[in-house]
Structures are given as C-alpha cells and as structure tokens.
Write a structure and sequence with these properties.
With 442 residues, this protein is of the alpha/beta class. The chain folds into three domains: 213 residues, Rossmann fold; 35 residues; 183 residues, 3-Layer(aba) Sandwich (Rossmann fold), CATH 3.40.50.2000. It contains 16 helices and 13 strands. The strands form two sheets. A seven-stranded parallel beta sheet has the order 3-2-1-4-5-6-7. A six-stranded parallel beta sheet has the order 10-9-8-11-12-13, with helices on both faces.
C-alpha cells in the first residue's frame, strides 16, 4: 500500500497519528506500508508541533518517502503578507474576515484549489514516479486534509494503473471552519466529484461525512464503496505511562485542544466562576489545565473578571508522551466542541481521553454528533454548552461526590476495548482485500 499523508511523524498532530497507527497495523496483517509525506531534513518550514522523538514509533518495516515542500510558497505568501499589513495599518487588531477579503480584492486567504498544498504535488509525484521502478505498489491510499492528497492520489492512479482509496478526516466543501468564496467552492466540488467517482473506495472517519458526500453528488448507487473507519487509541502508547496514576486529593480537569472558531469556552468559564463564587470549590484543590497552542492573552481579562485566573491555567504545548501522562493524572479530561454548528467528526484527543481509562466530560450541544457518540458509547458526561445551569448542576454534583469520596471516574474496560486501533485496521484490511479480489476478477 502506498499511503499519501502530508502529516506523518515527527509531526505531533492528529492526522499524523492516524496515518502512523494504520500503516503500522497493516504490517501485522501482511500489508506492507509505503508512506509518502513531506520532507523534514532541509525544510524551510517545520510544522510547529514537530517532535523528533516520534520517529521511533514508525514501524521499521515501513518505507517512508519524503518529498520536498518549498514553503512559504510564492503564491500563498503575498496574500499572507497582505493580511499582516492590513492588520498593522488597522492598529494590529484582528479585522473582520469580510474586511480582510475586500482588502485582498475579493480573493480568499488561500486562493489555490483545493488548497495551497497543491504546490507540493510536483515534488511528491516525482518521488513516487522514481520509487515505482524500485518496488511494486498494489493500492493507493490518499488521506485528506489537505485535500491536495486526494488530487495526488487521482493522478497516481492514472500513472500506476492501481486502485485508489480516498480518506476523509474532515470535509472539503461546505466546511463551516473554512468558508471559501463560491467560485472556489464550485471548483472544489467539481474536483471532489471527479475523484469520488473514480475512486475504488471512500473511507470516512464518520458516517455523516459519507452520507453528506453521497447526497451531495448523487452517489447512492455507489454507497457500497463508502466505509466508516473512525480513529482510535493505541493501548501501547499508554504502556509508556502505565505507572502514572491520578493525583489523589486533587480535582483536575484537563483540556488538550486549541480553542478556536466555534470551540468557545465562555459558558464553561462562567460556570466555573459561579461554582467558585458559590463556594462549591471550597475545601478542595481544584484546577483546570489547558494544553495546546492557545492565546492566553485572548482569555486573560475574562478569567480575571470571573475570578478564576487562579484555577484556570494555560500550559502551552507539550510532547505527546507528556500529554498522555497528564491525561492519566487528571480527574476528568474535557472535550470542548463546537456550539454554532454540528461538525461531523470526532477530535483525535477524544480517543486518547478514552485511552486514559476515565470518563470524559464533553462540553457540547446535546443531539450533535460528538455528544451523541459520547452518550451512545457510554463514554462519560455531556455538559450542555447551551444550558449553563445544567452544566453547573452536573459539575457541582461531581465535585460533591469527590468531596465525599464517592466519585468514580473509571471508564469500563469493555467500552474502552472497542475504541482501539485493532478493529479499525481489520476493517481497512477487509476493504483492501475486497478491492484486490475484484481487481483480479477484472
């Protein structure tokens, strides 16, 4: 299998871990993994979450091809500079997206289709063209985003005359996080439709993504080639922190995510402020620790006004193993979801919350995809972000149970076992074997 994944270790990010776990696992079922990803040796741009220690986690049987990526790009840089200049002229304040769009003459921040990673394709295509003469490739697995990987997969299918499986970890078009001008959306819809029709299988991390693609492009007759394979956690990762235990006598809530877009902690912070003001937190060592690339200055005044700047701490980015240790030490790990819309994916940190062996606090909207997943799989508690009074009651009850020593945070081992990588790898293997079988018949 040739896996096209722009993100791969040493990048410490969700798509990197998914590609790593799937390719490592496939070796165990007799499928050799070749991974095409970006170079790290002489790169001008290194991903901000690069962690070189992650290289040791790559299975020694994997062949990793790394293609150069010249960044910042000559096409993308002018638009980025224009945004910086516009903010500087306006007093370094963040300006409205419409104003910034107008300043750029109506062009989006990323004018390229499907995204600016398309500029990596010539180097990546050349790398595979060189490798195909050295070893056989039986199937192509292209993972997006970035969705230029799907375009690359489409082109390589034509070059190699091999089956193509495309993977959706997020949505390409009609993405509420990345609203593009209609002209770009139209082009991306055309590209997406062509790739979906030509692909031999479509893997998505959630059924709503598949349903949306099928409905959008009228692919009901091809539904049998759409499969849902969610992410998972790897028990082996937690063996490294097996000796780490929850800190006794301390009520700690840990959040490991970037607070951006529709991930709004405002109501959560207000509830924490009221819990403190009402004396619910009195007599216990209570804290909320937030890890990841977050702008503390953005929340500083709000925390101070609510009187919770002494219990809510922004810890910044930490290495992956250290993050797993923190999850083990916490009382609860909290997932903060979108409030404004129902996004059809589960964040990777949710799986590692499950791996920590304790119930999850999900701060989101009941009825949304993420909240339903937590409820239906008995993974913990849903804190209704749109009903702060209910959040207050749930947290107050949990804290009182903690005070009396009756609080149980342990997640059922049976429930956790269902969320590991092994069944995901088996499901992907089944897809590959099916394609292989049908290809031989042809």
């Amino acid at each position: 299998m040739l896996c096209l994944s722009y993100y791969f270790p040493p990048v410490n990010a969700a798509p990197s871990f998914r590609a790593l776990k799937l390719t490592n696992g496939l070796h165990g079922v007799g499928i050799h993994s070749v991974i095409l990803t970006k170079n790290i040796d002489k790169e001008f741009h290194i991903h901000r979450t690069t962690d070189l220690t992650l290289l040791k986690d790559i299975d020694k049987r994997s062949k990793v091809l790394r293609a150069r990526y010249f960044s910042p790009t000559v096409f993308h840089l002018p638009f980025k500079l224009l945004g910086i200049i516009t903010r500087f002229v306006r007093g370094k304040k963040k300006i409205a997206s419409r104003t910034e769009l107008k300043a750029r003459g109506g062009l989006p921040r990323d004018p390229l289709v499907p995204d600016h990673y398309i500029e990596w394709l010539p180097q990546a295509f050349h790398k595979v063209n060189w490798y195909k003469n050295k070893s056989a490739i039986d199937i192509i697995y292209a993972s997006g985003p970035p969705f230029s990987m799907l375009v690359l997969g489409y082109l390589l299918k034509a070059l190699l005359k091999k089956p193509l499986v495309v993977e959706y970890r997020d949505v390409l078009t009609d993405d509420p996080y990345n609203k593009a001008p209609e002209f770009k959306e139209k082009i991306n819809r055309f590209i997406e439709h062509v790739i979906l029709k030509d692909s031999d299988a479509v893997i998505s991390v959630s059924s709503p993504i598949n349903d949306g693609l099928i409905k959008k492009y009228g692919l009901e007759s091809s539904r049998k080639k759409f499969f849902e394979i969610p992410s998972a956690f790897d028990p082996a990762d937690f063996e490294k922190v097996a000796d780490i235990a929850q800190v006794e006598g301390k009520f700690t809530i840990t959040i490991t995510t970037t607070l951006y877009g529709a991930r709004k902690p405002d109501n959560l912070f207000k509830v924490l402020g009221k819990l403190k003001k009402d004396g619910v937190l009195a007599g216990i060592d209570f804290e909320v620790n937030i890890y990841g690339y977050n702008d503390y200055e953005r929340f500083k005044s709000q925390l101070q006004e609510l009187g919770i700047d002494d219990i809510v701490h922004f810890k910044g980015f930490i290495p992956h193993d250290a993050c797993l240790a923190v999850l083990k030490q916490s009382t609860f790990n909290l997932d903060l979801a979108e409030e404004d819309f129902d996004y059809p994916t589960l964040p990777y940190h949710l799986w590692e919350y499950i791996g920590s062996g304790k119930k999850i606090l999900h701060f989101g909207v009941p009825g949304h995809y993420k909240a339903n997943y937590v409820t239906q799989n008995d993974l913990g508690y849903v804190l209704p972000a749109n009903h702060p009074k209910q959040v207050y009651t749930i947290l107050a009850d949990l804290i009182n149970e903690f005070k009396t020593g009756s609080l149980s945070t342990a997640l059922s081992s049976t429930v956790a076992a269902q969320q590991t990588w092994n069944p995901r790898v088996q499901a992907l293997t089944k897809v590959f074997r099916s394609i292989q079988k049908s290809t031989r018949k042809k």
